[in-house]
Design brief:
Mean pLDDT of chain A: 96
Number of strands of chain A: 11
Pfam family, one (chain B): Glu_synthase
Mean pLDDT of chain B: 95
Distance between the termini of chain A: 52 Å
Order of helices and strands of chain A: EHEEEEEEEEEHE
CATH architecture of chain A: 3 Solenoid
Oligomer: heterodimer
Largest sheet of chain A: 11 strands, mixed
Distance between the termini of chain B: 59 Å
Strand order of the largest sheet of chain A: 1-2-3-4-5-6-7-8-9-11-10
GO biological process, one term (chain B): glutamate biosynthetic process
CATH class of chain B: Alpha Beta
Strand content of chain A: 15-25%
CATH topology of chain A: Pectate Lyase C-like
Structural class of chain A: mainly beta
Largest interface: A-B, 41 and 33 residues
Protein name (chain B): Glutamate synthase like large chain
EC number (chain B): 1.4.1.13
Number of domains of chain A: 1
Number of helices of chain B: 15
Low-confidence stretches of chain B: none
CATH superfamily of chain B: Aldolase class I
Enzyme class (chain B): oxidoreductase
Strand content of chain B: 5-15%
């Protein structure tokens, strides 16, 4: 297994190696040591590689991941797994702002807390946060699922489109056009699937509340102007 | 002798003119602001207010049909492994599939390719047709991130991080429900028929320090191959240019308020942003102050219509220009051929700007399958190529007259200004003087 020490190896070499996986290669598992808060660690992966980052990372770790499995054995800075297409990203610690921003697919698991704007403009990604999330999370969320085992901050789901939000704890406030919705059987099934994938045990889907779009702001109506 | 009051004609207010009165009535009747496409329609100081001096005893010209005047430009050589090489400094600005029909995007790609220049995606992602018909394609990275994916990022020739545009600095995209067809909805991952009011800020960065990190990420994802442009609306050109350079941009794209949009509020288009003419010198000054002029390229857009405009922008220090509205006109937008239909829509050829409604008789700003068919992408691409070639020839004609063997050798010294306003904005002496406002010495 290649071990890349970012204390001595330029970031460019790491990402270039991840982008140049040859068909049939046996070196599909990478270990990254001494990340020391580096930005853009393991970005643009487009092959089924496994990357274990031993430490905390800066901005945009695993950005645009397409098929890789990235685990950060530490915390992640802003924009972790931004615009992920597919694959899995696991953060053992906390995540900063914009976790999973605009993600289109794959699964992002944050075992600690996530800061503000978690899942902003999400477009199909599934995000499971074991702890709490900050304000303005899932802002303009288009599709995908955001599952929060803890609490959500202010203005959850503001200007939400079709993303589905599940929160087990309290929600400080809901954003414009976001409402609590019925938790139907298909949602319980999906929740159970996501919890299992995220390694969550001893938590039942029935413990969550579902939030989604009231769809009142989908087409501009002057009578709704106060909502903006 | 009886006294009769002499006739005094009715006097209309300059402040409350007919258009203003009509707008007040329209607002009162509908309860909503006017939304439209294109750029500002108000008259602002522009390239028309500058003239070239031409050669004289102290400057000798080049022969028009004999001596070479180079028009090529290289964009993005600062950091990118694969900079962009263009035959002409006139590029096609970003316009989205969604705002424009697939045929229109294809026509832009075809025309640009024939002319040896680049075209640009927009707020809606990259289509296969567009990629296939564009030899050099710039992929916009916008706040909405509609259609953004790493495969398209890698098959682009350059990446343009869009911070703002001249028609609406500080505003996001707007694509109303009537243009959201199945294909557009699918590319943008949104339900069909809803209004798409794109975000005005990027979702995962704010400010120049974050932008630097974002640019690093894009470079890492694309293995440092692609030039990275940063596009800003004409608002604070000195600082925006300096900050874009500091953040690591290879190219700065600066769009003045005459630059068009697919749709936004009329009040925004007409009242926010600076004229293109006022943007260029501060941006060039920022590049010069940083020692980066000609190392980081400056692309100017917003109201470029002719080779004269191109030459003037370049003389003021730009490396290239981009055209949007003019390119649409070249492929058939607002063509009098469709006058009868424009009349039915309550407008006239040359004034049609309800691009957001999707009813464009010319088949350009629409997703209606029947209207789209009206635009032949091959013929329209040919028209655009002709237009680009004419503009290039015009710019060469002027450059030769000024004794320049490359368009980039044009310089402010080749110009004079017709008005005080233009003189001040462009820092070009008023014709017949050696002075412009702000220079001192009067």
């Amino acid at each position: 297994m290649p071990v890349i020490d970012l204390a001595t190896t330029p970031l460019r070499e790491l990402n270039s190696a991840l982008h140049n996986i040859q068909n049939g290669s046996n070196d599909l598992s990478f270990e990254v040591v001494n990340p020391r808060g580096s930005h853009s660690v393991a970005v643009g992966i487009d092959a089924p590689v496994t990357v274990d980052v031993k430490g905390s990372v800066g901005y945009y770790c695993a950005g645009m991941n397409d098929g890789g499995s990235v685990t950060v054995h530490g915390s992640a800075g802003p924009g972790v797994a931004e615009n992920m297409m597919s694959g899995t990203v696991v953060i053992e610690g906390d995540a900063s702002q914009y976790a999973g921003a605009t993600g289109r697919g794959g699964l992002l698991v944050i075992k600690g807390n996530a800061a503000s704007r978690c899942g902003i403009s999400m477009k199909g990604i599934d995000i499971v946060v074991h702890g709490n999330i900050g304000h303005m999370s899932a802002f303009m969320g288009q599709s995908g699922h955001l599952v929060v085992l803890g609490d959500a901050g202010d203005a959850l789901g503001d200007s939400l489109y079709e993303a589905k939000l599940f929160v087990r704890g309290s929600v400080k406030s809901l954003g414009a056009d976001c409402i609590e919705k019925e938790l139907r059987p298909e949602h319980l099934t999906k929740l159970a699937e996501l919890l299992e994938k995220a390694g969550v045990t001893e938590v039942r889907p029935e413990e969550f509340k579902r939030y989604g779009s009231a769809r009142k702001l989908y087409n501009f109506n002057i009578d709704n102007a106060d909502a903006y | 002798m009886s006294y009769h009051n002499p006739y005094t004609p009715p006097r209309k207010s300059a402040t409350f003119d007919d258009y203003t009165l009509a707008e007040i009535r329209r607002a009162a009747a509908t309860g909503i602001y006017d939304i439209r496409g294109a750029g500002t329609k108000r008259k602002v100081p522009h390239f028309d207010d500058l003239l070239f001096l031409g050669a004289s005893i102290s400057r000798y010209p080049l022969e028009g049909y004999r001596e070479k005047c180079d028009t090529s430009v290289v964009l993005g050589a600062r950091f990118a492994k694969k900079p962009i090489h263009l035959k002409t400094p006139i590029t096609i600005a970003g316009m989205s599939f969604g705002a424009l029909s697939g045929n229109a995007k294809e026509a832009l790609g075809r025309g640009a390719t024939i002319a040896g220049t680049s075209t640009t995606t927009g707020d809606g992602g990259m289509t296969d047709e567009e990629r296939g018909h564009s030899q050099t394609l710039v992929y916009q990275y916008l706040p909405s991130r509609y259609g953004m994916n790493p495969k398209d990022l890698r098959r682009a020739d350059a990446i343009e991080v869009v911070v703002g545009q001249g028609a609406k600095p500080g505003g996001g995209g707007m694509l109303l429900g009537q243009k959201i067809s199945d294909r557009v909805a699918n590319m943008r991952n949104l339900p069909k028929g809803i209004d798409q009011r794109s975000a005005c800020r990027h979702p995962d960065w704010t400010g120049p320090d974050d932008l630097e990190i974002k640019i690093l990420e894009l470079r890492e994802i694309t293995d440092w191959e692609k030039p990275i442009y940063v596009k800003v609306g004409g608002a604070r050109p000195y600082y925006d240019t300096a900050l874009a350079v500091k953040a690591g941009a290879d190219v700065v794209v600066l769009d003045g308020m005459q630059g068009g949009t697919a749709a936004t509020q009329d009040v925004f288009i007409e009242n926010v942003g600076m004229p293109t003419l006022a943007c260029i010198r501060p941006a060039v000054q920022a590049l010069q102050d940083l020692g980066m002029h000609r190392k980081v390229q400056l692309i100017i857009s917003g109201g470029i219509r002719s080779g004269a405009d191109v030459a003037k922008a370049l003389a003021l220090g730009a490396d290239a220009v981009a055209i949007g509205t003019a390119a649409l006109v070249a492929i058939g937008d607002n063509d009098p051929h469709w006058e009868e239909e424009y009349q039915k829509l309550g407008t006239t050829a040359g004034a049609y700007d309800d691009w957001h409604e999707g009813k464009d008789p010319a088949g350009i700003t629409t997703q209606d399958p029947e209207l789209m068919k009206r635009l032949d992408p091959i013929a329209a691409g040919r028209r655009l190529a002709n237009y680009l070639k004419v503009m290039t020839l015009e710019a060469q004609t002027i450059a030769r007259a000024c004794g320049k063997n490359h368009l980039h050798n044009l310089e402010p010294e080749d110009l004079c200004a017709l008005t005080m306003e233009a003189a001040a904005m462009a820092q070009i002496p008023l014709a017949g003087t050696n002075w412009y406002p702000g220079k001192g010495g009067y």
